[in-house]
Write the structure tokens for this entry.
Amino acid sequence: MARKLFRYELYRSVVGFKIKGGRSEVMELLMSLKLIKASPSFGGTEILISYPVLSVAKTMDEEVKRELGITNNLLRLLVGLEDLNEILII
């Protein structure tokens, strides 16, 4: 999919996405995860999820966050090396 979307292969395995709602919905989602671990930063080979509002953007000025698209419902997912069948939710 990335090859179709991006002209150059300057992408990696981090995907940012927004969920419906705000901070409370994000926290509810993070608490419900079983396989995916919440992490303030990415550094391993396992699938991880980060909530920028409480990690890298915690001390940023609100205007800078707005300019960067960092909102209360933004999450970042690092795709790990797990077997695809372990990750898929059917």
Remarks:
- The CA atoms of residues 1 and 57 lie 28 Å apart.
